[in-house]
Amino acid sequence: MFNPFYFLSVIFILFLIGILGILFNKKNILLMLMSIELLLLAVNFNWIFFSFYLDDIMGQVFSIFVLTVAASETAIGLALLVIYYRIRGNIAVELTNLIGG
Amino acid sequence: MYLLIIILPLFNSLLVGFFGRYLGKYGVSFISCLNLFFCSVLCWVSFCEVGFFGSFCYIEIFSWIHCDYFCIQWGFLFDSLTSIMLIIISSISCLVHIYSVSYMEFDPHKPRFMSYLSLFTFFMFYLVTSDNFVQMFIGWEGVGLVSYLLISFWFTRLNANQSAIKAILVNKIGDIGLCFGMLLLFFIFNSLEYEIVFSLIKYKVNTYINIFNYNFNLITLLSICLFIAAVGKSAQFTLHSWLPDAMEGPTPVSALIHAATMVTAGVFLLVRCSPILEFVPNILVFIAIIGAITSFFAATVGGFQYDLKKVIAFSTTSQLGYMVFILGISKYDVSIFHLVNHAFFKAALFLSAGSIIHSLSDEQDMRKMGGIIQLLPFTYSIILIASLSLIGFPFLTGFFSKDLILELAYISKYSLITSLQGTFVYWLGSLSVFFTAYYSFRLLFLTFLNKTTGFRIILQNVHEGSLILLLPLLFLAFGSIFLGYFTKELFVGFGTDFWQNSMFIHPFNISMFEVEDISIYVKFMPLFLSILGILLAYLSNTFLKHFIIKIQLSFVGKKIIFFLNKKWFLDKFFNNFFVFPFARFGYFITLISLDRGLVEFLGPLGITKIIKKYANILIQLQSGQLVHYVFFIIIALVWLFCINVYPILILQELYLKEYLKLFVLFFFTLIFMFLI
Fold first, then answer.
1. What does A64-99 look like in DSSP terms, one character per residue?
2. Which of the four pLDDT bands, split at 50, 70 and 90, describes residue B512?
3. Secondary structure (DSSP) of B203-265
4. How many C-beta neighbours within 10 Å does residue B413 have?
5. At CA B294, angle to CA B293 and CA B300, rounded to 5?
């Protein structure tokens, strides 16, 4: 039997895992980026599920957009990470504010 | 001519005040004396016209305030009452100006002094000649102001400044009374002009005003307000304490302001408002009692002061008490008569005292004087004349008014007021006569007749002042001798039409005829008491000196003398129960607790503090830690979930059970993450 609740709970759990990943990984910026990817994945799932559920193509269009945005964002994020590592020598996110500027 | 009377002193004041430095001290003296002399001549002429020929003069200049019902004009009225006051003010002022020329000879601020004196004269003229209450109030406040300026004339002295502040503040209490009186008058009559108010007063006798749910009789309230004003200005009991302290000013000031003119303004006001007062017998009785208490109090205290000027100041207060209590038994003409006489002999007393102080190189303590009768014969004769006049010695000026006052007080218990009150007033007045005689002669003994207690170096330099200092004394002495005799029939004689409409005495209150019918003993009583007082002063300074000293040094005697010397501890009483509590209240309650306390706390200070506090808390939220922000995101999500998703789920008819499942999932996930 089709129950949207199961789908939604999967999406919700994915999203939660992403957020908690950001929350609990204070040390590793790489893991944080990965968690962000997970968030975006959950959102994408959400779009696609509702596009299917409501029988509307717009959700899928949006999911494609989200894909591109996620890709570019990851690229920029990784670039920042590289620069950050070059300056600090580690990738702990805790003391980012010490860089200034 | 009438306007010239008023303008001359002002002109003189401005001229001398602003251009004194160009005129020099001789120029200033000459111009002031000339102006004031001319002014007093004009006053005498106006007195002839108004008083003797009975042609009152009304001058309306132009409208000053014109608003709805409220029309005030710059107007002057010269009736007999005004003309009398003009005579006193201008004559005494002229003589005091002449006196000051010599007395303030070496004072560097002489132009300022002369300017103030003239300004005072101007304001006093303004007070007595105005034809409405508002204009009178200008003069009323003006004399208070100039009194302040003159008492603190030597502004480097702390005492002078304190006394000046005290004088103006205590006067202000009375001025507030006058303000309330004027407001009430306007409330009743929609007008503040004498003519309108006094002619309509009898139609408002039974009008009541509701204040705080209590019905006050309007006229009674009005009279109380006016009497408060008079109490302040005329230094009656309870507001008297500024007058003795006002002796910090130069002696001519004391003579002009605190003896002859300014203190009579209160009496003048009450006499002016006689048409109002005549319809409130209860308040009249109250006025009489307060006046009697004043006269008695000041006379007893005056007998035990050691400062030459303070004795005379208390004597002034005592005499003002006489004027007020005779006014309270509605003998306004007698009150004014005594006012005139008193102005002359009190000015003589003060100027003589100034002469003594001047010759003793500014020594005011009577205990350091004595024995200068051979050195200052002229001053002695003047002060003797003035003192005898003051104690009502027969056939001198004071006798004609003072004895008449006492007789009227005696007779009053048969007519206006109850026997008890009349007797009370009469006996207080009589006792005051006794004390008056005592302190006058005590003053004479201590300064002139006793063996000297002064310093040799000072006594070597004692000499009479210059002619210009003694000339005014001579005139005033003539006034003190003859004035009462010459003007008795004019002012208080039978059926004299001198006053015409300038004062109103209810026919019920006229008792001039009965006075002539009282027994010979009552008539001789004041004289007997005066002689007793003189005798007491004489004995206590000659034969019984040691006996009196023994009494004074005994336990009870010391207490009594101390009590009287300290003015019945009234100053202490007022300071402790009014001044300091008010000052403390003003500082601790209004300033510290309210203005800089509660209001600040609820206003700027409190708001800034609260904003700062919470701003700091908010600042701490921005820790710069990414993790915290994520936490906030989660919180926000949960919140959004609660307010948005839950209702949606309800609408979708999903059961709460399943919704709870979701949360369980959420928690399990959390635990799972932790385990990882």
1. HHHHHHHHHHHHHHHHHHHHHHHHHSS--STTGGGT
2. confident
3. GGTT-EEEETTEEEEHHHHHHHHHHHHHHHHTT-TTS-THHHHGGGS-HHHHHIIIIISTTHH
4. 18
5. 90
DSSP single-letter state for residue B367? G
Token output for B417: 């007021």
User: What is the least distance, in Å, from the CA of A71 to any CA of chain B?
Assistant: 21
Q: Three-state secondary structure along B101-168?
A: HHHCCCCCCHHHHHHHHHHHHHHHHHHHHECEHHHHHHHHHHHHHHHHHHHCCCCCCHHHHHHHHHHH
Give the model's pLDDT for residue A100: 65
| B641: chain A residues, CB-CB within 8 Å | none
Q: Could you identify the residue written with the tokens 């009234």? A: B570
Residues A23, B631: C-beta atoms closer than 8 Å = yes
Q: Which of B164, B130, B163, B127 is nearest to B146 (CA)?
A: B164
Q: What is the DSSP string of B161-205?
A: HHHHHHHHHHHHHHHHHHHHHHHHHHHHHS--BHHHHHHHGGGGT
Whole-angstrom Cα distance, residue B155 to residue B176? 27
Model-level pTM? 0.84
Whole-number Å distance between alpha carbons of B165 and B655: 86
B265 closest CA partner among B361, B143, B130? B143
- Tell me the C-alpha distance between A71 and A75, whole Å: 6
Q: Return the residue matching tokens 């003060």.
A: B350
B300 half-sphere exposure, CB direction, 13 A CA radius: 18
Please report where in the chains the tokens 């929609």 appear, as a residue: B190
Q: Which of B461, B399, B496 is nearest to B80 (CA)?
A: B496
Nearest residue of A to residue B641 by CA position? A12
CB atoms within 10 A of CB B1: 10
- Measured over the CA atoms of residue B504, residue B510, residue B516 and residue B518, the dihedral's sign is negative
CB contact under 8 A, A5 and B658: yes
The span from the CA of B262 to the CA of B147, in Å, is: 8
Q: A69 burial class (0-12, 13-18, 19+ CB within 10 angstroms)?
A: exposed
Q: If you compute the radius of gyration of chain A from its CA atoms, what whole number of angstroms results?
A: 17
Q: Are B369 and B363 in contact (CB under 8 A)?
A: yes
Q: Which of A67-71, B167-171, B243-247, B493-497 has the lowest mean pLDDT?
A: B493-497
The two structure tokens encoding residue B625: 């830690």
Put simply, the chain B residues between 634 and 673 with a CB less than 8 A from any chain A CB are: 634, 637, 654, 658, 661-662, 665-666, 669-670, 673
* Greater model confidence, B193 or B515: B193
Nearest beta carbon to residue B665 from set A9, A19, A26: A9
Amino acid in the structure at residue B564: L
- B32-82 pLDDT, tens per residue? 999 999 999 999 999 999 988 988 999 999 899 988 888 899 999 999 999
Mean pLDDT of B395-423: 83
pLDDT tens track for B216-237: 898 999 999 999 999 999 999 9
H or E element in which residue B641 lies: none
Our CA-based measurement puts residue A25 at a distance from the nearest CA of chain B, in whole angstroms, of: 8
- pLDDT tens-place string over residues B173-206: 999 999 999 999 998 898 999 999 999 998 888 8
A82: left (phi over 0), alpha (psi -120 to 50) or beta: alpha
Amino acid at B45: V
Closest by Cβ to A16, choosing from B630, B631, B666 = B666
Instruction: State the number of CA atoms in the 13 A half-sphere of B148 facing the CB.
Output: 13
Q: Identify the helix (H) or strand (E) that includes residue B82.
A: helix B80-103
